[in-house]
Design goal:
Layout: H1 3-24, H2 32-38, H3 41-55, H4 68-83, H5 86-102
Length: 104
């Protein structure tokens, strides 16, 4: 089997398994309590995605000292809290990270 066919096959399997849950479940099946609990899922998953990107280096070691990502994340978080704007948060985080890498 060629590599492209394998990639397409894996993509289809991934799509179908995820889409089946969306297509088969009806909104009427969830009561208010379940909807309230499910509303916390994105905020619970977000730190699990962001933490390794900020605190772990390429080899997977925990890195606290000489890590510009931590300061950039703090700056982005403060800008996000103050501005309540996701674009301003992203731009400030990227700009501060690049500044810390290239200028400091």
């Amino acid at each position: 089997m060629s590599n492209w066919l394998l990639i397409i096959y894996c993509g289809l399997i991934t799509f179908l398994t995820r889409f089946s849950m969306i297509a088969l479940l009806k909104k009427e099946m969830f009561n208010d309590r379940i909807r309230e609990i499910l509303s916390f899922v994105p905020s619970a998953i977000f730190p699990a995605i962001i933490f390794p990107a900020i605190f772990l280096d390429n080899s997977g070691d925990f890195q606290l000292e000489n890590n510009p990502k931590i300061m950039a994340a703090i700056i982005a978080m403060l800008i996000g809290i103050i501005s309540q704007n996701i674009i301003a948060t992203i731009i400030s985080g990227l700009a501060s990270y690049w500044f810390l890498i290239f200028m400091v």
